[in-house]
Design a protein that fits this description.
The chain is mainly α and 151 residues long. Helix content is 39%, strand content 9%.
Length: 151
């Protein structure tokens, strides 16, 4: 069957309503005159209460907290951390695999590595297995951060 070309556009198989046809709703510029002017914010002449507070976090402390909160920002890592906090003893990855069923063991190990690098979990090698537990200093680090927010 030969292909024929036509200079006429093909008719649209769908019925087109003039009220919804896109060519009837093209952008038309409007000349709107704005008569109301907004007041600009002016600097206040009120005295300040004192010098601006200096941040207490600098350098390594700030970087350490940033790494910790980056690790805590993932819900999978939060659930792993909650599981480790609820367990009485250090837990092997194979037990975590039963808890986080939607992830494979290498993915769980990746999340545990990020938690370990952030200083949130500690590791204990027992033979060929590595067992994970909550870092004992985690509660102290979180309380120090919360005290910065509270004062």
């Amino acid at each position: 069957m030969p292909i024929t070309t036509s200079s006429q556009p093909r008719p649209c198989p769908l019925p087109i309503s003039n009220s919804f046809y896109i060519d009837n709703h093209r952008y038309t510029p409007h000349n709107l005159n704005v008569t109301k002017r907004l007041a600009l914010a002016e600097p206040s002449n009120r005295p300040t209460t004192g010098p601006a507070p200096k941040p207490r976090l600098r350098g390594r402390a700030l970087a350490s907290l940033a790494t910790m909160f980056k690790a805590l920002s993932d819900e999978t890592r939060l659930s792993i951390l909650a599981y480790l906090a609820a367990s009485e003893d250090a837990t092997c990855v194979c037990h975590l695999e039963d808890y986080v069923k939607h992830l494979s063991q290498p993915t769980i190990s990746h999340h545990l590595r990020l938690l370990r690098e952030a200083g949130l979990v500690k590791t204990d090698r027992r033979g060929t297995w590595i067992h994970y537990a909550i870092e004992p200093s985690l509660r102290t680090r979180l309380n120090e951060f919360l005290s910065l927010l509270g004062s």
